[in-house]
Design a protein that fits this description.
The protein has helices at 66-69, 84-101, 117-123, 130-137, 211-215, 232-241, 269-275, 284-293, 295-303, 382-389, 403-408, and strands at residues 71-73, 138-143, 147-155, 157-161, 170-173, 180-183, 195-201, 204-206, 225-229, 243-247, 253-261, 309-314, 332-334, 345-350, 357-363, 373-380, 393-402. A hairpin with a 6-residue loop joins β14 (345-350) and β15 (357-363). The protein has eleven helices and 17 strands. It has one domain (1-170, 225-411): RlpA-like domain (Barwin-like endoglucanases, Beta Barrel). The relative contact order is 0.26. The longest helix is centred in the N-terminal third of the chain and has 18 residues, at 84-101.
Length: 411
């Protein structure tokens, strides 16, 4: 879901970083817009006591990757507190990730693809419990100081329709043909790894239309609509998540996923609203309540986030994470690949019980930066929305690595 599609966790809305529609007469909501319900409020946290992190290793390098930040050996995996059901989900997600895991280059500097082969071969036929599997083929390590921060994301479901009709008029656009990607590294070695998006006007490359321009009709009449949403606020948050489901009038579901983004920088409206004293609750639910209660001001605030996401219909399994495999609620997480290898299992012990246990790093995100920074995926539906929307847990994290990699690290 997040990968190149640049989604943010909802709890990170007030911070910053990554990735509407047209209402012909303007405004965020109509009189028929549903008012906030219990599903719009965060789930009440279940408190838990986090295990303390281990003393950090001496930092051997510049700290920009796990290897240069330093790792220490953790406790035996079999001694960790886990939930059997969630551990089984994690093992199944690990199995699904294996084809990519053994081929990927690890930017953390901790593993090599071949290190994972014994575990990936064994998991194909494993019939025992999940924690015994992880203990048999991996060892736990702590990256840096081990202090973890976890947020949450989910696959939103909003009301929509395939063809425009009264009450369902917020366009969901596919990628415009005139939106181009530019690899700046082709023009200068100093710009390797840097990319921009824009469009050609005359003989110049200029920025692509921002959210305000698109919502005010700049793409109308070009046949780019793949569907429509009932409510612009709901669609705004679906854009931030990067993929989601449209509940159609006949009860069917259309799944849409990130295709690209307009190249404009992301502005976290939660931070902006808190700085202006408009809200005190920076959760998704607090932001939504204000936007619905103040539709004219809300529309202007949303347009201050100039980023706009374009979608495609998803017809296979999904939503897909950065590895190209389906992400699974309560098993998949987004991470910073400089510190956690994609496909690797990790264990969380937090001050909130819901995220505790084993997760598989299958996704990435624009705001998910740094060691032990984890964005947990909760699936779809009201429960997932409630947990993800209020998730902001702190505690400790351990990373599970193949025994060969741990031995090579001298731990």
């Amino acid at each position: 879901m997040k990968r190149a599609l640049c989604i943010l966790s909802i709890s990170a809305l007030m911070l910053s970083a990554c990735s509407g529609g047209i209402i012909p007469n303007g405004g965020v909501a109509s009189p028929s817009t549903p008012q906030p319900t219990s599903a719009d409020r965060p789930a009440k946290p279940i408190p838990s006591t986090a295990e303390p992190a281990l003393p950090a290793a001496a930092q051997p390098g510049d700290g920009t990757t796990a290897a240069t930040l330093g790792v220490v050996r953790g406790p035996e995996i079999g001694s960790l507190k886990v939930d059997a059901r969630k551990s089984k989900l994690a093992m199944d997600s690990f199995r699904a990730s294996c084809p990519g895991l053994v081929r990927r280059s690890d930017n953390s500097g901790l593993t090599q693809g071949a290190d994972w082969a014994p575990a990936c071969d064994a998991v194909k036929t494993w019939t025992g419990d999940a924690i015994s599997f992880f203990a048999a083929y991996m060892d736990a390590v702590q990256v840096g100081d081990g202090k973890a921060f976890a947020t949450g994301y989910y696959e939103p479901e909003i009301l929509g329709c395939r063809t425009r009709q009264p009450g369902c008029e917020v366009p969901i656009y596919k990628r415009p043909a005139d939106l181009i990607d530019v690899d700046l590294g082709l023009f200068s070695d100093d710009l390797k790894g840097k990319n921009i998006r824009g469009k050609v006007t005359g003989s110049k490359l200029v920025q692509y239309d921002d959210r305000a321009a698109i919502e005010n009709g700049s793409l109308v009449g070009r046949g780019l609509e793949i569907a429509y949403a009932n409510d612009v606020v709901d669609f705004f948050f679906l854009q931030i998540q990067g993929s989601g489901r449209l509940r159609l009038p006949d009860g069917g579901v259309m799944r849409i996923g990130y295709e690209t983004q307009n190249g404009r920088g992301y502005t976290g409206i939660g931070r902006l609203m808190k700085d202006r004293g408009l809200i005190t609750d920076g959760s998704m639910q607090g932001i939504v309540t204000y936007l619905r209660s103040n539709p004219d001001e809300g529309r202007k605030i949303m347009q201050e986030n100039k980023s706009f996401v374009f979608f495609r219909e998803l017809t296979g399994a999904g939503p897909l994470g950065a590895m190209g495999y389906p992400v699974v609620g309560e098993a998949s997480a987004a991470v910073d690949v400089k510190f956690i290898p994609l496909g690797a299992p990790l264990w969380l012990s937090m001050d909130r019980a819901e995220p505790n246990g084993i997760w598989i790093a299958q996704d990435t995100g624009g705001a998910i930066k740094g060691a032990n920074r984890v964005d947990t995926f909760w699936g779809a539906g009201d429960r997932a929305r409630g947990i993800a929307g209020g998730m902001a847990a702190r505690g400790s994290a351990l990373l599970f690595l193949p025994k060969a990699a741990v031995a090579r690290l001298g731990l």
